[in-house]
Amino acid sequence: MGKIIFNKDELVNLGYSLEREILKTSSNGAFACTSLCFCNTRKYHGLLIANQPQIDNEYHVILSSLDETIIQHNHPFHLAIHRYPNEIYCPKGHKYLSSYDVSKIGKHTYFVGDICLTKELIFSSEEDRLIIKYTVERCDYPFTLQFSPFLAFRQRHKLSKVNSEINTSYNKIENGVSFRPYSNYDSLFIQFSKQDVSYKHNPDWNYNIEYIKEAQRGYDSQEDLFVPGYFEVDMKKGDTLFVSAALSEIDPIKIKDIFNKEAKKIEPITTFDSELRRAASAFLVKKDNKVEVVAGYPWFGRWGRDSFIALPGLCVGLHDMESFKKAIDTLIVDMKDGLFPNIGSGNDSAYNSVDAPMWFFWALQQYTDYTGKTKEVWKEYKDVMVSVLESYRYGKTKNIKMMPNGLIYASEDKRALTWMDAVIDDEPVTPRRGKCVEINALWYNAIMFCLELAEESKDKEFIRGWKELSEQIPGEFKLTFWDKTYGWLADSVDGYNRDFTVRPNMVFATSLKYRCVSPKICQLVLDRIAKELLTPFGLRTLSPNHKDYKDICIGSQRERDMAYHQGTVWPWLLGHFVEGYLKVYNICAYEVGERIYKGFEEATNNYGIGGIAEIYDGNPPHHARGCISQAWSVAELLRIRYMLDNYKELAEGGKA
Asked: Quick one: how many helices (H) and strands (E) in the chain?
């Protein structure tokens, strides 16, 4: 299991604490993200980041930070920390940090002279509301606690700059004030559980706050934030203060109750399993009777492909089949011509993924296997499944079609249609045009899954229409992708061009319930993957033996895109590697799976605290990169745990 308590030496060491980030989320969609010492290092950091559908249906940083200052005997002690150009940090509040306890809510402890002050953050699950709890654990003399809100009010992918359009006024509300710097935004309401909190209005700008992570990624990295004034409240030993930052006003009496109610829902971290479950819960956004999967924090939204791949692990890990089904139903609403949107929803949807619809079948297959609702699934989803299959079979979209041999061909100029989707200057880094190995493995699995459901429901019409094709595909798949002189599967085939570059996409031909190739070929494929692609944190996207292999994923966006699928390690691929390994090597694969799973225990300490990163460098020491917590990274580890536990149970019963 990962670290539970971070100590003073770690927290005051900026080289350590700035590299580690904390995440707090609401099932309503809002979230907070910052570094371990509360110094924002990304433009995606802030204490209240919430959706603004009236503007662009994107997430916006509303409250960047709430800077605390302890004033005792007329001496100020600033607990906040910001970075400015030339590596200047001001103030340097991290030096007062004593510990950070992750085990329950997440508690920061500060020591300032005789004062011991703790700080805990939690979100309401029903609204965009962050509540911060401050507790005076110890002090010899009373003191004043001052709060200065740093306001951003901008889309999370952008930065705020000083401007004359800002409305610097405020409105007084019960136990607090509200701000609305720009008329198209919701107001920010800051309220306190105590009545005797004073507010001093002193509008000003704080210039050139620098986000070092953005500078490293080649982006504009400096921001101006509006500071409207400050709050003050007197504190003494034993006092507890709750601060609410939200997009709606609340009766201050309820702030404490909401905090305590939400605290009771949080599962304590006692094992690595429980840590992953907590991470998993952050990705499911439940709103208006819909469920959406956030692909990764802090900058991704809903992605179709990622949602289908992540749902089984997330929901099986959380034992939440209701959310599983609702998430699938939510995505179906935006279906168009047999395709699911890969990015966005509604009018903002982008239909540029050949594999998202195939992963829909896989996700529904996992749901069916877990619930046993075979007939119910066919009755409810038959029309949707058939529409997808027919769209592919009869080429109803301009870039995806079934060839005469029954395999799927996909190609579109200036687009990358598979999950290896990085594009630079309108040119895909990994074009993979034509017949792709994982697309056709998924295609066959989808047809066979539908036939399984149809046979259970005695749907003779569907069986007549698809049975013959299903019998044709395995032979054509082997003929197209297999070559015994290589000993592994081609990654893609376009006409006479067969690309036998060693990539991880062939792993899906070994892991799916219905496979096109023999166990012997699966074994050879897995052995090649283990030899050239397997690392402790995932599978490389390209063999190190290839001339285009990139060992690290850093630098400008162009440099990172060049490495993204050219050697960079992806954790989510391990789920299918372990699944394929269990099918080929049976009980001998169990220890391999356990080693892979447990190998991530310390990884939750080193990037996003409690989460699993999106990607890792191809070469040791395999530094974490990308999103600090990625849905399918967490999900596939939970699915590995489920598979191993299930396999162990079968093995002990003599059925494996």
From this structure: 17, 37
What are residue 228's DSSP bridge partners?
A: none
Give me the residues of the chain with pLDDT under 70, please: 1-2, 344, 346-349, 398, 650-656
Q: At what angle do helices 374-393 and 356-371 cross, to 10 degrees?
A: 170
pLDDT at 414: 81
Please, what CATH class does the domain formed by 5-265 belong to?
Answer: mainly beta
Spell out the domain ranges in the chain: 5-265, 268-333+533-656, 353-498
Contact in structure between 232 and 200 (CB atoms under 8 Å): yes
Whole-angstrom distance, CA of residue 587 vs CA of residue 654: 11
Go through 36-62 and write b for each residue having 16 or more CB atoms within 10 A of its CB, e for each that does not. bbbbbbbbbbbbbbbbbeeeeeebbbb
Backbone angles phi, psi at 248, to 5 degrees: -150, 155
Task: Return the structure tokens found at 89.
Answer: 């940090």
Q: Which pair of structure tokens corresponds to residue 447?
A: 């047809």
What are the phi and psi torsion angles at 463 (to 5°)?
-60, -45
Q: Where are the alpha helices (DSSP H) in 570-618?
A: 573-585, 590-598
Residue 432 CA to residue 419 CA, distance in Å, equals 10
**What is the value of pTM for the model shown?**
0.95
Distance of CA 289 to the CA centre of its chain: 21
Q: Which of 487, 480, 475, 482 is nearest to 523 (CA)?
A: 487
Give the 3-state secondary structure of residue 100: strand
Q: How many CB atoms lie within 10 A of CB 483?
A: 14
Domain 353-498 has CATH 1.10.3720.10: no
Beta bridge partners of 99: 7, 109
Q: Print the SS3 string covering 448-503.
A: HHHHHHHHHCCCHHHHHHHHHHHHHHHHHHHHHHEECCCCEECCEEECCEEECCCC
The residues facing 299 across adjacent strands are: none
Q: How far apart are CA 106 and CA 264, in angstroms?
A: 13
pLDDT tens-digit profile of 301-356? Answer: 999 999 999 999 999 999 999 999 999 999 999 998 888 888 767 666 677 789 99
Q: Nearest 5°: CA angle at 365, between 360 and 366? A: 100
Q: Helix 374-393 crosses helix 460-481 at what angle (to 10 degrees)? A: 60
Query: What's residue 1's pLDDT?
Result: 65
Task: Please say whether the beta carbons of 254 and 231 come within 8 A.
Answer: no
Residue with tokens 């992953």: 276
Rounded to the nearest 10 degrees, the angle between the axes of helix 590-598 and helix 631-652 is 150
Q: What are the structure tokens assigned to 60, written together?
A: 């916006």
Kindly compute the dihedral angle of the four CA atoms of residues 182, 185, 189, 190, in this order, to the nearest 10 degrees: -60
> Are the C-beta atoms of residues 311 and 328 closer than 8 Å to each other?
yes
Choose among 315, 294, 322: nearest CA to 306.
294
Strands (E), 236-287: 240-246, 284-287
Residue 634 contacts by C-beta under 8 Å, 6 or more apart in sequence? 276, 279, 280, 283, 310, 313, 314, 611, 612
Going from the C-alpha of 442 to that of each of 215, 358, 407, the distances in angstroms are 40, 6, 11
